[in-house]
Amino acid sequence: MRKALSILTILLAFFSCREKELTQTGNPDEYVSPEFTKVPDSEELYVFTEETSGDDFESLEWTAANFGAKSEYNYQILAAIEGYDQQEVVTLVNGSATHVDISQKEMNDAIMKITGALSEGMVTEENVKLSIRAFIGDAPTGSGVVASTKDATANILPFFKPTLPNNKMYVRGDHQDWTEGDDTTILGSEEEEGGPYTGYMYLNANFKVCAGPTWGDANYGQEGEWASEGNGFTTTMSTEGGDIKVTPAPGIFYMNTNGSSSLYIEPMTFKLKGSAIPNGEIVMDYDPTGRYLYANVDFVAGTYTFYGSEEHNFGMGEASGVAEIGGPAIEVTAGNKMVILDLKNPGTYIYYYQGAVEITAPVMTPLTVLDYVLVKENEDQNIETISWTEAVYGEVALDKYQVLLGSQVIYEGTELSTTLTVAELNAAALKNGGEAEVSGTHSVKVVALFVDNSKLESDAQELTITPYQAFAETLYVVGDVNDWGHNEEDVVNLQNPEGDYSNWFWMPAGGFKFTSVAGWGGTNYGYESDGVLSTDGGAGNIDVADANHYNVKMNPSTLTYELEVLEWGVIGDAVKGTGWDSEVPMTLDAGTQKWTIDIELVYGQFKFRANGNWDYNMGATDVDNEVDYDGANIQVEDAGNYTITLTYDNDTKKFSYTIEKK
User: Which of 605, 597, 599, 659 is nearest to 636 (CA)?
Assistant: First the structure.
């Protein structure tokens, strides 16, 4: 028995020594470091976006490390950036693999940890140095660690994704072009659910407060009038309310809403105040592209705060670069630099510095004529020249200037002035919501657009404009379609102030003309060439080669016309396979003026649509089996195979449909 135990002890000792031999490293002076063999292109700029964050950044390959040990090694890919002490692990490779695919997200996360960026305005192109570290065991400690001797480099423009409040509301409006899914114009609440929702925002015209990122979510408009309250204004909201109109003027506002029925806004003029500011204070400007406040300041050593009012005075927060109401004054060293205050994220208000940049908005020369009563007889005459000073945004090149009348672009180019005709001003006023023969107020401003998408705006000036009716509401269509007899139904209708007319017609093969009056005594428009009209009395008829349903278009100003065939189909979630994405074409029998289709339907709804365009759609009316432009969806209760027929009636000039289950 004693002999057996001795043999067992010897065996255990042997295997124990064998195990130590497997993990024992060699001489550290003889370690072989891993070295890259496949690296990013150092000449390329890698641009990361949130949308592409799941894509690969690069595949890296390297030679195997050697510690003189009979064991597997682990590898870490490390990132470092010049000017920062911190080094971050991008990814870990377990086992003996000598290659790895790194995603944009992994690389982006490492860059954000190194730079500590708190806003997209703090994100810049970075020269990232990549290295490899090999080690034995669970962590790179002790003598069993060896790193690459040569770094790889990559130029990367990362993206910034803010940490937004979980409980938030969206403010959509003219200030952000009514864009859905815009996380830069939100209000946040500290409560798990419900309000109050607060934040700061630039508002310039009309807006709504929305419960979610799309128009499918509840949205709240103005129900009552504005009433003064403290330093601001309050109003009531509801889902039935119209657009909320900014008061008293465009600018930065503090906003507070309960999220459904009440809204408070307070206009703010933010200033830098304190001992570090020459003369004690300076007003901050607003950058509509970056949506932040900024000021170029020749600081002296001292302190300052971002002062909106006594209740909205931002000092230094607990974290570096974070601004908090009531925080201690921010210390700054002397020097000329730009300071930026970013209030977009109601969860975290931040500030940071950049090198001083010359930013000069265009200044529009004061207009001397502020009230225009326009008449058609003067349509070719010029109005007063609009001029402005040059805009500068640091070293960024100018792309173009735009002159806006309200929302309408009336000039686009690189000159510093423009002169409009009466006709051009008239058309812009009508497109901007003006009404013929009615006086209305319109704002005029100059916008400078730069190649990096920055923009600067002049102060707006107001014009009072009384436009004229430039074009008749209707023009007549006369030809084989109505036996060459004028009537009040066969007309094309004015669509816009530019003189575009259109209407749908069932047109037989033959010809037709347009006329300005219900007879031949006005201006008549005939055929000059394909797509071109002539007002010559001897001009020929406009040819219709084939009987069909057309959208007939013309413009008497440009003397152009178009006959667009309307190719009808069936679209909707009742249509198996295509849904609301595209219509399934129907077959036309021009002799009977009927479109038919045999189609498999499921429970759901459908409409008729032509040419892949919702401008051409028909749905149900209050009359059984009648359809009309933009009518209601047609319900299908039972799945199955159906024959659908769409019919045009020449006498009533209306469409009807039938749907029969096979």
Answer: 605
